[in-house]
Amino acid sequence: MKVGLEKLENHKGVVVRALLDSGATGLFMNMTFVQEKGFKMEKLKKPLSVRNVDGTVNAGGAIMHQVEYNMFFKGYVERARMDICNLGKTEIILGMPWLAAHNPEIDWEKGEVEITHCLPICGKRKQEGKKKEVKKVEKNKDKETFRRLVPKRFWKWEKVFGKKKSERMPV
């Protein structure tokens, strides 16, 4: 699916194809893409080891940095972070934490993705009208509902669960 990513420091954006991957345990951005597009990297306090889907160690080594950005998709905007690693030809991966938080409707025949079941805890905001006003959603309003609907194995994701960044699960 195509999403827009906006750099926080200068508000310049880029459109990118995102891979939805229910097997990925986080949100990831390719190191080459980060460097080519000039995203500002933040160094992690503690490196995260990375394993590929086949169990092998990722050729790019441990995750040392992350990127914070605004992501736009069909009228929604959210601020999030992605871990930076070697993804080969893939630019970004939206893994299970994103899928669980947004619970998108996917029409596999048409190749269309719609965000219609998003819980307030995901932090999404709907853009409204031509003025691009932003409707804020209370983040902690449905925390209990979120915990009831999202499998516990995905509770290690960023601020949503109050865990340290180093406790996130790699790919």
Task: Give a description of the structure.
The protein is mainly beta and 171 residues long. It has a single domain, classed as Cathepsin D, subunit A, domain 1, CATH 2.40.70. It is 12% helix and 37% strand. It is globular, with a radius of gyration of 16 Å.
Please give a quick description of this structure.
It contains three helices and eleven strands, in the order βββαββββαββββα.
List keywords for this structure.
mainly beta, 171 residues, Cathepsin D, subunit A, domain 1, disordered C terminus, two-stranded antiparallel ribbon, single chain
The H-and-E topology, N to C, reads as EEEHEEEEHEEEEH
Mean pLDDT: 76
Kindly provide the name of the CATH class: Mainly Beta
Q: Residue share in helices?
A: 10-25%
CATH architect. name: Beta Barrel
SSE blueprint:
Layout: E1 2-7, E2 13-20, E3 27-30, H1 31-37, E4 41-48, E5 63-73, E6 76-85, E7 92-94, H2 96-102, E8 105-107, E9 112-114, E10 125-128, E11 133-135, H3 143-149
Parallel strand pairs: 2-7, 3-6
Antiparallel strand pairs: 1-2, 1-5, 3-7, 4-5, 5-6, 6-10, 8-9, 10-11
